[in-house]
Every structure is written in structure tokens, then in C-alpha cells.
């Protein structure tokens, strides 16, 4: 049972292309793409990979972003507006969409006519077999929405290339698709709020903002989507075996590959206290359910090195759904955020039924996919100290492709030099993809502390680093390759900081 003083609701409240849906029973556990295609017969949304890799299933999801988010200027009342973002509907579950408005490709047309983006795709020959086309159209429509800020200029090729990283086309080629995007005149493109006025939907969402949702299907399958942290913890304590879902970019893939079929789900999508990103006293505090797009906007100027890593984290659709808490709790040794969080000494705020505790992320992982979190606890927030002006931070992601690829190897180095600027005063090094968990390198760190910052010292540290890791061979790279990276990255760090080319 949800233990909360809030109203309890036994169905999800979702608007789809402007129509209200009350979703209950087993339907609450369907993926959005299945709900659109199988329940509503809206088969414009295509399924190709079913794992967030191709973007064919992209749709727009509009939400009132009602949580303080400094990246959007602090006061995020949303002004009663829905902000639309593209997500992959194949790895988004209906229970994540309570109090959201979904726009699928069927919902773009106006008075039976093609939308400007669809029209441009026709005129620029942006479609051949057409399977990827609805996904491209939806993502481009999302780019034109511009996160609720009225767009005056046409999209640039660079904006389109970046925005469409998560959409793959196997036959047309991208030139025509980019041409189509560039040819759309934002001034002549109706905003979604013109097609679907925000007001009536926002009124409904606001009236139900404090509802705890608990949907039980005829076979006992249960989904809880509480509105606050206390209710979420209460559900977790009462159902210690439940599957926690935040953005579902990991859980959704496991589900679609048939690895999991949870009977009890705790969805965190509505937990207000776990959202938002703020900055105070030299640190960033991110709710565990802050998605990567929010984090990306918030840290762009504060930690440009981490921003650069996030620009190659999955795709826009993945970053619009996937969360920082999910990346940490998924406990992958190649999670892109973790080496950065290690060297910054990030603290996890862990909430349980009787207390909240803080754990240094360096002490959190105890083995492959094992970590210090009790069955009745959730990661609530992540506190990340910012690098000081005296510190140098460098982050590395090595992957087989630049975009939309999982890392083979990751590294983070945070260094402070003494007053002379020539001697290493303190240094923290973390590597990912070289062991069952992300590792700090105590031997290399101890060796470097107090040493001059020069090439030969860093090269020697590289050899020590190599001795501290135990990589395996897998599809992304051999153990030997990873050992070489473990060694070489120290020299690369030297050349990056000294701004010299290697000789
Ligand atoms: C196509 C694709 C590309 C990707 N690219 C990258 C990439 O470049 N780099 C990278 O690091 N990852 C990548 N990922 C993995 C994934 O997107 C990230 O790990 C993401 O941050 C997971 O967040 P989520 O909210 O979606 O997690 P979910 O799938 O919702 O959950 C993941 C795990 O965390 C647990 N969990 C979630 N929130 C909490 C919480 N608050 N407290 C306790 N447990 C919790 C869940 O129970 C689950 O075990 C990619 C995934 C896909 C599908
Ligand atoms: S079908 Fe490929 S991302 Fe959803
Ligand atoms: S038109 Fe065939 S996959 Fe893009």
C-alpha cells in the first residue's frame, strides 16, 4: 500500500494527441509504442530496434516542468506551459507518462494536411522506405518547439546533426533529411500549443499533481507512481523486491530483450523531490530523477568538461529520459558519469524509512552491480562539488563510434598544482571499463603527489596505472587494448594540460 496523505488514483492520466486517456490494468505496464500501435491502432510510430538505438519510435512528450531547475532560470513554474521533448517510445512505459501529453506522428497534421516538417521531407526527398521517417519528423518537430522558447530562425545543419543523433536512416542518406530540416520556416510552423492548447491539459494535471497512483491488474501486477518521496519509500519498504524505474532507458532495454518482466514496479517519474538541478555553495545538487538533458543544461558553463561528455551520452532521446540516479544505480563499470563523480567526491543522499544518509560515491560500489543500498532505500539526490579554479579536470570517453555508443574505456583526472604551478599537490584518477566497478588508482595517485608535472613522470604513472587495473576482453575491446589505454591516458592528460603535441 502507498502510505501517504495524498489522494490515491487507480489509473494513469495521459493525454495523447489532445485526447484524455485513463489507463488502467495491464495497459499501465505496456510500452508507449505498444500502447499507440496495439491499443490505439496508431501505427505511424515504427519499431525497429526496440532498444533506444534508432529513434524510429520517437514521439514528443509534453510535461509541466514544475520543479526548480536552475538551468532554465531558477523559477521553473513552467508558466503553466507544457515543454515538449523527444523520447524513444519503445523504452518508455505508460506508467511513466502519468500527467503527460504524448504527441505521435498522427498528431502533427492540421486540418488533414501534412505538417511543415513532413511537407519538407517530401519536397527534399528525405524518405525512401519510410520506416525511419516518422521518427525523424517527430524529432525535428521537437527541435522546432525549441523547449518552449519561440524560435525565429531556421534550424542550422549543425543543430540538426546534433539533434538527430538518435535517429538512424538506412536508405535515404542524411543530406536530404538535413536539407529538409533546414528548409522549414519556424515562423510558418504551428507550435504544438496552437494545435493542443496547454491550458485545459495543465489544469487537469495540476488538479491531480498530488495524487499517488497505484494500478493493480487482474493478475496482481502492480505499478505505483507516488507523488512524493515519503510515499515512494513507503512502497519500497513494503515491496522490497519491486523494480524501481526512473527513465527506463536501462530497464526498458532489459524488458524488451526479455530479461525482466517485473510484477511490482515503483515508478519515480512523479516524485517531485527527486527532480531538478540546483547550484549553491560550490556544489551542484541534482535530484536522482533529473534527466541528462536537465543536467547538461545546468552544467554547461559550470563544468564544460562534463558537458562535453554528456553531448556524446546516448542521444537526445536517451538524455531526455535517462536520469543521473539511474546511471549510478545501474552500476555499470562503463557508466559515463561515474568516473567524473568519483574524482569530484560526489555524495549520494540515500533516503530510507527512518533516516537519510550520505555516502561518498567512492565507497558506494562493492562489486559488479553491487552497491551500498538497502532494499527499503532509494537514491534521492546527488551532491557534486564543483572543481575550483585551482584544479584541472579532464574527462575521457573512448568508444568505437563517437555518437550513440557505449564506452569501451572512461577516465577522469582532477589535479591541483602547488603555488609554483610545477608540482602536483593533489590528484585523483578514476577509470571505467577496466574492472567490475569504476576504480580509483591509489598507487598512481600516491606516486604523482608531490612530483613535478612533466611528461616522464606522467608516463611512469601510466605504467603504474596499468598495473592497477584488470580489464576483460569483450565486444567493445580487448583486455590488451584497455591496458594500453590505461597507460596512455596519463600521457594524454599531460599533453592536454601542457597543450603540447606528443613527440
Ligand atoms: C541507446 C542507449 C544509449 C545509451 N548511452 C549511454 C551512454 O552513452 N553512457 C552511459 O553511461 N549510459 C548510456 N546508456 C544507459 C542509460 O541511458 C543510462 O544508464 C541512464 O542514466 C539510466 O537512467 P534511467 O533513469 O533510464 O534508469 P532506469 O532504466 O530507470 O534504471 C536503471 C537502474 O537504476 C535503478 N534506479 C533508478 N533510479 C533509482 C533511484 N533513484 N534509486 C535507486 N535505484 C534506482 C533501477 O531500478 C535500475 O536498476 C544508454 C542506454 C541506451 C538505451
Ligand atoms: S525502435 Fe529503435 S529506438 Fe525505439
Ligand atoms: S528511409 Fe528507409 S530507413 Fe530511412
Write a structural description.
- By secondary structure, the chain is an alpha+beta fold.
- Among the domains are: 77 residues, Orthogonal Bundle (DNA polymerase, domain 1), CATH 1.10.150; 113 residues, CO dehydrogenase flavoprotein, C-terminal domain (Enolase-like, domain 1, 2-Layer Sandwich), CATH 3.30.390.50.
- It has 17 helices and 21 strands.
- The strands form 5 sheets. The chain has a 5-stranded mixed sheet with strand order 1-7-8-10-9, covered by helices on one side.
- Strand 2 and strand 3 form a beta hairpin.
- Helix 15 runs antiparallel to helix 16.
- The longest helix is centred in the last third of the chain and has 20 residues.
- It is globular.
- The chain starts with 7 loop residues before the first strand and ends in a 5-residue tail after the last helix.
- The relative contact order is 0.10.
- About 2% of the residues have low confidence.
Amino acid at each position: 500500500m502507498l502510505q501517504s496523505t495524498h489522494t490515491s488514483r487507480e489509473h494513469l492520466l495521459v493525454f495523447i494527441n489532445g485526447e484524455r486517456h485513463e489507463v488502467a490494468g495491464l495497459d499501465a505496464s505496456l510500452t508507449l509504442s505498444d500502447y499507440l500501435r496495439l491499443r490505439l491502432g496508431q501505427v505511424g510510430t515504427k519499431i525497429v530496434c526496440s532498444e533506444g538505438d534508432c529513434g524510429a519510435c520517437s514521439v514528443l512528450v509534453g510535461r509541466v516542468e514544475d520543479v526548480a531547475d536552475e538551468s532554465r532560470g531558477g523559477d521553473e513554474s513552467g508558466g503553466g506551459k507544457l515543454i515538449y521533448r523527444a523520447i524513444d517510445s519503445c523504452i518508455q512505459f505508460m506508467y511513466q507518462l502519468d500527467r503527460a501529453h504524448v504527441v505521435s506522428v498522427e498528431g502533427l497534421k492540421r486540418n488533414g494536411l501534412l505538417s511543415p516538417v513532413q511537407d519538407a521531407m517530401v519536397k527534399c526527398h528525405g524518405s525512401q522506405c519510410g520506416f525511419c521517417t516518422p521518427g525523424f519528423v517527430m524529432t525535428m518537430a521537437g527541435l522546432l518547439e525549441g523547449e518552449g522558447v519561440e524560435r525565429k530562425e531556421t534550424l542550422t545543419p549543425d543543430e540538426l546533426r546534433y539533434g538527430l543523433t538518435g535517429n538512424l536512416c538506412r536508405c535515404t542518406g542524411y543530406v536530404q533529411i538535413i536539407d529538409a530540416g533546414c528548409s522549414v520556416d519556424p515562423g510558418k510552423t504551428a507550435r504544438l500549443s496552437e494545435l493542443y492548447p496547454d491550458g485545459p491539459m495543465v489544469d487537469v494535471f495540476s488538479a491531480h499533481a498530488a495524487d499517488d497512483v497505484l494500478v493493480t491488474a487482474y493478475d496482481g501486477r502492480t505499478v505505483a507512481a507516488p507523488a512524493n518521496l515519503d510515499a515512494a519509500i513507503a512502497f519500497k519498504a513494503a515491496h522490497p523486491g519491486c523494480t524501481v524505474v526512473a527513465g527506463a532507458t536501462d530497464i526498458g532495454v532489459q524488458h524488451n530483450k526479455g530479461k525482466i518482466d517485473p510484477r511490482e514496479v515503483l515508478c519515480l517519474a512523479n516524485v517531485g523531490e527527486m527532480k531538478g538541478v540546483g547550484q549553491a555553495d560550490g556544489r551542484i545538487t541534482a535530484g536522482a530523477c533529473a534527466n541528462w538533458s536537465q543536467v547538461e543544461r545546468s552544467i554547461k558553463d559550470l563544468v564544460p568538461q562534463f558537458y562535453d561528455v554528456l553531448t556524446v551520452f546516448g542521444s537526445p532521446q536517451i538524455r531526455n529520459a535517462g536520469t543521473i540516479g539511474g546511471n549510478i544505480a545501474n552500476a555499470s563499470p562503463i557508466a559515463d558519469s561515474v568516473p567524473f563523480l568519483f574524482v569530484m567526491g560526489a555524495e549520494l543522499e540515500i533516503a530510507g524509512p527512518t533516516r537519510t544518509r550520505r555516502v561518498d560515491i567512492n565507497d558506494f560500489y562493492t562489486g559488479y552491480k553491487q552497491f551500498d543500498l538497502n532494499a527499503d532505500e532509494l537514491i534521492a539526490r546527488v551532491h557534486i562539488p564543483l572543481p575550483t579554479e585551482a584544479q584541472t579536470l579532464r574527462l575521457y570517453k573512448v568508444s568505437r563510434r563517437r555518437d550513440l555508443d557505449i564506452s569501451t574505456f572512461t577516465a577522469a583526472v582532477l589535479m591541483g598544482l602547488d603555488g609554483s604551478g610545477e608540482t602536483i599537490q593533489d590528484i585523483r584518477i578514476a577509470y571505467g571499463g577496466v574492472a567490475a566497478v569504476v576504480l580509483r588508482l591509489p598507487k598512481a595517485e600516491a606516486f604523482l603527489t608531490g612530483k613535478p608535472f612533466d611528461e616522464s613522470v606522467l608516463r611512469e604513472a601510466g605504467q603504474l596505472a596499468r598495473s592497477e587495473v584488470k580489464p576483460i576482453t569483450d565486444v567493445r575491446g580487448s583486455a590488451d587494448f584497455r591496458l594500453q589505454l590505461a597507460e596512455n591516458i596519463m600521457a594524454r592528460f599531460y599533453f592536454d594540460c601542457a597543450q603540447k603535441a606528443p613527440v
